Amino acid sequence: MADANRPANNGVNVEALIAAREALTNAPEAAQFKWRAACEWKNGTHSHSTVEGFYGLGQEQQRKRTFTFDADHPEVFASEDKGATPVEYVLVGLASCLTAGIAAVAQHRNIQLRSVTATIEGDMDLQGILGIDSEVRNGFGGIKVTYKIDADAKREDIEALVAQSQKRSAVYDIVTNPTNVTVVVN
Amino acid sequence: MSRCLANRGIDHVVLERGEVAHTWRTERWDSLRLLTPNWQSRLPGFGYTGNDPDGYRTLPEVIDFIASYAKAIGAPVRTHTTVTSVRSTETGYLVRTDQGTWRCRTVVLASGACNIARVPAFASLMPRSIASITAKDYRNPAQLAEGGVLVVGASSSGTQIASEIHRSGRPVTLSVGEHIRAPRLYRGKDLEWWMDAAGVLDERYDAVDDIARARRVPSLQLAGTADRSTLDLNALTDMGVKLVGRLAGITEDGRAQFAGSLRNMCALSDLKMGRLLDLLDNWARENGLDEAVEPPYRLPPTRVEEAPPLGLNLVTGRIKTIVWATGYRPDYSWLEVPVLDRKGMIRHDGGVVCEPGMYLIGSQFLRRRKSALIDGAGDDARDLSAHLASYLDSCMTRITA
B234, CA 20 to 30 Å: which among B10, B122, B264, B350? Predict the structure, then answer.
């Protein structure tokens, strides 16, 4: 069990996060971030996206390298399967966000994690996106995330990590709450 | 506070815009009962003397209690006196009212934290065919049209209002955000007894990790039920109330949108309750009380259906009324002294406001976890009146020096 003499180390710099939180409490303008990606169509349903910079702490910021993503549809959609589907990117986004949160909360609560794995599944009725049935939504009918967590803690404490992670997760909020989306053509 | 000031021989006046116990008379629903048991709803030297110490005072009983206390201590109350502004002067404060002006060295803000019902911005997008009422204006189910009711907010007010309205034959859908579940009785004793005995209610504001967050925590989901039963979400579900997630928005065509986070909201609440009961169990064991009370147990988890509805058509559906039980905020529009932070809340240290000679009393976790309870007024008033008295002494020292 992690304690004051042998603190948990999940690799999360909680002190830095807490310092950031204090600094931003007094400087809300610096807390205004903009996350970005660029997307270029290749062929068919295949597109190539990049993530390089974002805005935050009052200025433009660069990443260590440009991150790239190929997206496509699978062969059963008569496509070429050159990348994961966009909806799978959303599932990856949600799982990654929750997992990062679990690590951060565990660090903050001095709980040593040994392994954390998640499987995530989104139900989708294609009659929505195929326009077959107007009562069926385009997106997921429901999403289920299943965590397997091996940690130095009681079951309730592990459940509390997962619950707290959802409470403070950006992607969980994006998926469970409405968000304004504006699409313009230049 | 008046009693403490009188005990210290400090000349003062209490300004009240209505009658004593004004908001209890005018801003609460008819069937309301305090959520603290009678023995605990006490003021210093003025406890409960009736024959139902474990019961919960009704609204008329609360009004009578407060009015009797004011009379018993001979509090110098000026009723029907509305404060229109408070300003700083060289020697203290200038308080303008509709009955004249007062000059004073010190001022105590006791106007409460619940002056204005909080309602989300998108409430203005509600279809006009739906009636809208806040918990502050709600009195009884007869005010509402027949038909379905959407109650927004599942803390103490929301759950009680939802239960009463549903039992009146108007089917209730309850929108649930963050809430604090708690059993009314635990191991045979009132939860408030536990919180008092174990020192939870006496927890100090300067001993808490994040006091700003602790002050924003919604009210415990406790009700002064006549049979001392627990009015939690499971009890409401058993009654037939339908649970949906937090009201996240209203679309242009009049559709209410509910968050898909209901399951986690309930999980968070169950886990939090578990931690409180663990704390109480540990306290009981460490103090040798395990034999004197029933054995520990845990409530079953909050039941959430497989796929709670994410939307409701307010135009074509069966909802005829929305009741907003989404909290309150204080009204400081008359306070013309720069003591507010960017969220409109008073800047203070345990009730000592950031302007000399100004004090705040009667708000959530002001100095102790019990600060917003009747039982919390006494200790807070004692502390703050001491500070006020020494401030006045220092003023006198400066003047006579």
Answer: B122
